[in-house]
Every structure is written in structure tokens, then in C-alpha cells.
């Protein structure tokens, strides 16, 4: 049956209430949100690290840069592991999860699994080379960019799964774009945190590479903050476009809009307050670092807080993504 709006009688109102309760129950299955958010974070962080590596190698040399980014790459690898483990809790029989990868020709889910496993393997091999070998620079470079490509394809396939004609709030190219933007935003702020944490550990330990780590932080934070701010603005614009599309859509689309701007309006507002507070704080910290030559230790707390706010924002965004979709038809 198609979803009914308010004012259609007691039976229709009861049906609508049951549908909403079902949507809220589905949102409580946090395995999928955890998996999608962590995978997007890992892909974005890998991209940010490899861009920083490509720039820093020209100034500081290959071996020292690969040594410095070992721990950040390890953090990305652990994030992928947690994401994959978390995704299995969504399945009633996790032991049969590999069977979902057997339909590459027809299934976006199968393709997502293929690219996710490829991302995991590429980062894993890269991590091994970084920790246990001093040469193979070109192989490491190639593996890093391969990981970025297959990780991005995993996010793309992930978004394609939700392009369902029966779900008006999902069935749009905006879904694909926002999934990729989320990867950039989360990854960039995560990279900032990883670099600052690594610098703090290096300063405490008195490591000889501390000066290089400090230079990398100084040189990368301005453009990292700029990209985070741009992606946040684009994300807001895309959401406004989606609202316009829903307002002109069918009954299920307008029901999604009622949910977003009615029941979930406080969360919608809080989502963007957290996002722009986070990227704004990040931008101010990066500017202060650039202007006053502060150390990573002094800006650590603002960077941690900005990353936390961005993460909270994206969690709210993913909650709203699931909570406001309404299925039309049978």
C-alpha cells in the first residue's frame, strides 16, 4: 500500500503511525550507519594522507615521510577493520555474508563488497611495506593511490544501493554526491587529528623526526581546513536542493519532507550547527597555526573538538537519511 498523509481518516492515520514507528526501528539498527560512516572516514583519510605524502616527499624525502605516516595509515587500516566487523552485525547470519559477493554483474552490494575487500587488502599490504621495508617507494605510492580509487568506488557502490525508485528521498544523484562529500569531510578532519596526535607523541618521545612532523602540520592544515569548509557549504546547498525536490515530488516525497522539517527539524538544525561549528573551529585553529606559528600541541584540543563536532554532524545526517525515507507503493 502507498503511504497516506494526515487527514485521511483514522485508518490512514494509524497506518502512517505504524510506518513511522517502523522507520524509527530501522534507524536503530546502527550497524549500517556505523559501517558507512567509518568506511567513508577511512577513504577520505587515505586520500588526505596520500595528497599530503605526495607534497611532503618533495620537501623532506621519501623514507622519512613514509616513516612518519606509518601510524596514521595504521589508524586507517584499523578503522576499515572496525567498519567491516560492524557491518556484519546488520546480518541475521553473518557467516553467510560472503554469499552476497557472488552477483557482481547485477548487484551493487556485491560490487561494494568487492571494492571494500580490495580497499582493505591494498591498505594492509601498504601498511606491511611501510613498517617492514625501507624501499619499494613506487610500489607504496601505487598501492596508496589504488587504495584511494577502490575505496572511493566502494563508497560509490554504497550510495548506488540506495537509489531505489520506491524511495523518493534516496532516489537522486544527490545521494551519490553527498556520500562522497561525507568521505572528504570526515577524512580531512580525521587526518588533522591523526597528524596532531602523532606530533604530540613525537614531541613527548623526543623523536628526531619531530621537526618534520611539525612542518607537515603547518604546511597542510590551511588547505585541509579550506577543503573541509567548502565541502560543508556544498553539503548544505545539496540538502536545500533536496528539500526543493521533495516539495515538488509525490506523496511519499512530501511525507519525507514533513518528517525532515517537522518531527526531525531540531536534529536537522543541530546537524548543521555542529558541522559548521566544527569546520569553523578547524579553520580558526589552522589560521592561528599559520599566522602565529603555534605548535601542534597548542592547537590539539581545538582540532579534537572540531573533528568530534563534524563526526556528530555526520552521524545525525546519516540518522536523518534513514529516518526520513518513506517507501511508496508495495
Descriptive account of the structure:
This protein has one domain: Formate dehydrogenase/DMSO reductase domain (Formate dehydrogenase/DMSO reductase fold). The protein is 78% helix and 0% strand. The protein is mainly alpha-helical and 330 residues long. The protein is globular, with a radius of gyration of 22 Å. The longest helix has 38 residues. It contains eleven helices and no strands.
DSSP strand count = 0
Architecture in CATH?
Answer: Up-down Bundle
Q: What do we call the CATH homologous superfamily?
A: Formate dehydrogenase/DMSO reductase domain
Helical proportion, percent range: over 70%
- The proportion of residues in beta strands is under 5%
Q: Return the CATH topology.
A: Formate dehydrogenase/DMSO reductase fold
Report the structural category.
Answer: mainly alpha
Radius of gyration: 22 Å
Largest sheet: none
By CATH reckoning, the class would read: Mainly Alpha
- What number is the mean pLDDT? 83
List low-confidence stretches: 1-28
Helix count, DSSP H or I runs of 4 or more residues = 11
